[in-house]
Amino acid sequence: MADPKGFMTTPRQDWPRRPVEERVRDWDEVYVPGALLPIISKQADRCMDCGIPFCHDACPLGNLIPEWNDLVSREDWRAAADRLHATNNFPEFTGRLCPAPCEAGCVLAINQPAVTIKNVEVAIADRSWELGFTPPRPPERLSGRTVAVIGSGPTGLAAAQQLTRAGHTVAVYEKDDRLGGLMRYGIPEFKMEKHHLERRIEQMRAEGTKFRTSTAVGRDIGAAELRSRYDAVVIATGATAWRELDVPGRELTGVHQAMEYLPLANRVREGDLEVSPLSAAGKHVVIVGGGDTGADCLGTAVREGAASVTQLDIYAQPGAERDEDVEPWPTYPKIYRMSAAHEEARDLRTAPAANADARLFAASTLRFTGDSDGRVRSLHLVEVDARRQPVSDSARRLPADLVLLALGFSGPDKEDGLIGQLGLELEPRGTITRDADFATNVPGVFAAGDAARGQSLIVWAIAEGRAVAAAVDRHLTGSSQLPAPIGPYDRPMTV
After folding, report:
1. Distances in Å between the alpha carbon of 32 and those of 21, 29, 38, 70, 341?
2. 54-83 burial, b if ≥16 CB within 10 A, otherwise e?
3. pTM value?
4. 190-227 exposure pattern, b = at least 16 Cβ within 10 A, e = fewer
5. CA-CA distance, 53 to 72, in Å (whole number)?
């Protein structure tokens, strides 16, 4: 460790965000450009180089966090970039989008604010690009084997890059017109500007990966036909079957799924549309669901000029500190967190009927009511207790011209033809069945990411992509030197 007393002498300092009034007027990333680099070496000094670094286990990628913290402390950016990329194909994605379970597992977090691992990671990634330390790495020779990867989210891209670098000829099939999956059309620009994604895709093209956009396997091309063309197929379509809210009034115009709303806002940013057909401008917006997707809807609606925005969370408001009896260190705790979008809602007072940050906790939706034209106008809710039972005399009504359902996802889409045409077996919860080698019941077909694991974090998605690549490489050649950071049955640390 560069400074053996750094964790005692240096307080935690996060990457500062731009002023709210400034950032809600644009779609640029919320952080102050250039403000991270001057502070990051000292923040890396806070790493204690623990004998047993639990941050390794908290991160499914097995990131070598103490090692690259030490290198950043010494400002050895090339070596830091090498150590970071040894375990993570896309650290500029995870450094911006991951909720950082590694920080929850930081040993320093037992009794102090954790090391700013996520900030160090993104600083290394961005510096690596700036200094030219991230060149394409095409294979020295080709294996003569071919692989189709279905889906271009983080799992599909990670699998494709690993398999391409191993010498296989890889084609990625994406149903949308642009690559990236949810990173392209589900993640708002203010969380990750899309030039980071474009840069990685160009790197992969230079390495030899082929991409086929606007091609839905199961519709535009038969799944069985695709299987016959390739030596192996990796299904990485994600969990796109959204959860519904079965309450009266769901059929009213103006009640939409979050993933109907967010892609349109992103298409405006891509230049496909001048204005989103579901724009929140001038509307009273209610978001049902307290997770990250709901927060993405919140920040988007604020930027579109909503009259008000309220977010409903069925869970009670968590405390500010970890409950050691329920979620002891080093597990990832459910605590009160203030995202950039919630900070914006708080400062702009977007939800006068809700708490300070636009969230109503312990709130359950009863029904929607509308006007004579069948458009939603109100959301009726009730407060619930810890068992999700209604609290008497707590019913209330919120004005609602646009309701966004952000309730998560249950598994891959069953209607696109892919699952049925291949005859894939499914788990009771709707995900694709696979064995300990990521293989499905169909020979030569593998499943990875949210399509098989279920809805998870971007670090788990990339870890799945790297692990399934090793499994496919082993299937094709009999052995593999590719890293496999996780198995298909591994799960986050819990009590």
Report:
1. 13, 8, 12, 25, 15
2. bbbebbbbbbbbbbbbbbbbeeebebbbbb
3. 0.97
4. bbbebebbeebbebbeebbbbbbeebbbbeebebeebb
5. 17
Tell me if 341 sits within 8 A of 306, measured CB to CB: no
Structural contact between residues 449 and 464, judged by C-beta atoms closer than 8 angstroms: yes
Strand pairing class (402-405; 255-257): parallel
Instruction: Please give the biggest Cα pair distance in the chain.
Output: 71
Dihedral angle of Cα 479, 485, 489, 490, to the nearest 10 degrees = 160
Positive or negative torsion for Cα 427, 432, 435, 440:
positive
Tell me the pLDDT tens digit for each residue of 161-216.
999 999 999 999 999 999 999 999 999 999 999 999 999 999 999 999 999 999 99
CA-CA distance, 57 to 330, in Å (whole number)?
Answer: 9
Angle, vertex CA 252, rays to CA 247 and CA 257, nearest 5: 75
Q: How many angstroms separate the CA atoms of 355 and 258, rounded?
A: 22
Contact yes or no for 285/406 (Cβ under 8 A)? no
DSSP helix, strand, coil percent of the chain (3-state; round to 5): 35, 15, 50
Tallying the residues shown for the chain, one arrives at 495
